[in-house]
Amino acid sequence: MHQRIEDYAVIGDEQTAALVGRDGSVDWLCLPRFDSAACFSRLLGDEENGHWRIAPKGAHGPCTRRAYRPGTLVLDTEWETDEGAVRVTDLMPQRDTAPDLIRIVEGVRGKVTVRSTLRLRFDYGSIMPWMRKSDGHRVAVAGPDSVWLRTEPAVRTWGKDFGTHSEFTVEEGERVAFVLTWHPSHEPRPRIVDPDEALRASVADWQAWSARCRYDGPHRDTVLRSLITLKALTYAPTGGIVAAATTSLPEQLGGVRNWDYRYCWLRDSTLTLGALLKAGYLEEAEAWRNWLLRAVAGDPADLQIMYGLAGERRLPEFELPWLSGFAGSAPVRIGNGAVDQVQLDVYGEVMDSLWLARHAGLTSRPHIWALQCALMDFLRTAWREPDEGLWEVRGGRRHFVHSKVMVWVAVDRAVRTMEENPELEGDLDGWRAMRDEVHREVCEKGYDPERNTFTQSYGSPELDASLLLIPRVGFLPPDDPRVVGTVDAIRAELDHDGLVLRYSAGKTDVDGLPGDEGAFLVCSFWLADALHLTGRTEEARELFERLVGLTNDVGLLSEEYDPVTGSLLGNFPQAFSHIGLVNTALALFWDDQPD
């Protein structure tokens, strides 16, 4: 049987990430970057598309238990067998130049025979490399890619059925370490890594990082796990944070809503920055802010909704027909065609992020205000146009209310920045007038007085969970009857067994796609935030407790959840979901923390 999304844990080195299943198999790993081609693609196909399983010989099912070491991204997976017990410790240490995947097998009790099966398949499972032996290593080469595998101590290894196999026995206290290292095939052999020293250093580094967390309220371990996950999804060389470590994990099993999320979205910027700043991670917040500044530099008319890890703009979308998809959910897509969409809300997210960064005291740059003024000049006329909206719908442009609200946010933050910093130059009077005009139009055209709710787009009867952000961004105060009415309407009409849908997918033509989807987890966190702001804090806390309970056994969330099957859906682990968890915890419990 295919593993479920919640059966996976993630390890990584802040430049890429691997997904490890409960059965001890690494089923997804892109090298050398998050957005590189995968060398293990069983996640989206089958074993012949690449994987690496280490488990007791004859064990076909899941492990007995697994857990991250506290405050780290180091994963321990244990099996109890009739012969004894064995532990596999998985990690990807901070790299010097080449990425390493380390798997340490340790006898815990008795005497256990362990089997390793490695099938390397480059270019998303389509290329079988040439394997050879060299200086105690197994070396796989195909085109630009080369992978070196060694064990300490050496164990018997052989090739069979286009795979590399090892078998050995460990008793209590005995250890066998596997080290897999990628490097460009034209370069000399990579340096030798000491697996035990790498483990020690990784645990120490992660625990030192975790000790900086300022949150000490309820569910601290879960909040910290979300922060660690955000750190794991950070591309350290640039500070960019990818939306998820995967592509094409489906929003509906067997459906076509399968997208590549291994890129950096501007929509995440303000919420990410706020979570990092309040939790005490100023260095990461500043790195993200600096990535943002580099990515959006240029003509404001060319502002994109997403960028590559280093700010790349071209992310062409194509399909991989040789992969069957997760649980048969095809197509498998690489790249993301939504990069070419127009989404006006990103201007608000950029302006709000820079406003938040200025207030937090992050290092100022002389060109930042000039960039903001250029964005405002563009918005002066562009805000009147329709767009594709926050959710990247593929059913045509509309006047989405959330987009217009975020335009208002952009102008509001520009006005407030000038009011607080009178030495800055800008069209203060013009921006004030524009802010009032946008606000007036949204309240007139985006609000349904008969139902007492804002709607998804002008003149539409549909609702949208993004409207829950209206009080959070300050467009209207939380006690405004229109805000309360909108929260209640969304709660009633977009309910999915107590959770929240983004919109009525499958019931309208707004997104231009067939099929349905699960409850979008960040939207449920937004509902908790909105309930709290509108004075219903106990209900907000009850919803938060339920959402925390949806994390898998190692504290991870994907994009969506299906209450009917009780399964996670969508790309994994999902930054947006973990950002929502952190921000809601901070909103609900920050003031209750011990001094």
List the helices and strands and how they pair.
Layout: E1 8-12, E2 17-21, E3 25-30, E4 38-40, E5 51-56, E6 65-68, E7 75-80, E8 84-91, E9 100-119, H1 122-125, E10 130-134, E11 137-142, E12 145-152, E13 157-160, E14 163-171, E15 175-184, H2 195-210, H3 220-232, E16 234-235, E17 240-241, E18 264-265, H4 269-279, H5 282-296, E19 306-307, E20 318-319, E21 333-334, H6 345-360, H7 368-382, H8 401-420, H9 428-445, E22 447-448, E23 453-454, H10 470-473, H11 481-493, E24 495-496, E25 499-500, E26 519-520, H12 521-533, H13 537-548, E27 560-562, E28 567-569, H14 575-589
Antiparallel strand pairs: 1-2, 2-3, 3-4, 3-5, 5-9, 6-7, 7-8, 8-9, 9-14, 9-15, 10-11, 11-12, 12-15, 13-14, 16-17, 18-19, 20-21, 22-23, 24-25, 26-27, 27-28
